[in-house]
Amino acid sequence: MRRLAIILVSLFFILLLSVAPGRAALKPNINLSHLVWDFGEVTAGDILKHSFIIENTGNGMLVIKSVTPSCSCLELELVNENVAAQGKN
């Protein structure tokens, strides 16, 4: 559980730092569906899946340059690296 929380916090900061610079009037704003997900008790070998929704509530394009897990036990899939203004990924 602690490892998952560290991964999610890391993901948040990576997303925060990877926002593409733009004109002063057009700025993206990151909003995550949630920062932590608790799968509860699991058995070793179980395959677990969960999606975190990244929403851009700003008025400029959000560009996600990279997403890196902090544990080799995790597999991440970024559906779209560009999130339009008022869009979701």
Radius of gyration: 14 Å
Separate helix tally: 1
Sheet with the most strands? 2 strands, antiparallel
Shape designation:
elongated
Work out the helicity level.
10-25%
Helix/strand structural class: alpha+beta
- What is the number of beta strands? 4
Strand order of the largest sheet: 1-2
Structure description:
This protein is α+β, with helices and mostly antiparallel strands and 89 residues long. It has one domain. The protein has one helix and four strands. Strands 1-2 form a two-stranded antiparallel sheet. A two-stranded antiparallel ribbon has the order 3-4. The two termini are 25 Å apart. 9% of the residues are buried. The model has no long low-confidence stretch (mean pLDDT 81).
List the helices and strands and how they pair.
Layout: H1 2-17, E1 30-32, E2 54-56, E3 62-63, E4 82-83
Antiparallel strand pairs: 1-2, 3-4
Keywords, please?
89 residues; alpha+beta; elongated
Give a brief rundown of this model.
This protein has 89 residues and is an alpha+beta fold. 18% of the residues lie in helices and 11% in strands. Strands 1-2 form a two-stranded antiparallel ribbon. Strands 3-4 form a two-stranded antiparallel sheet.
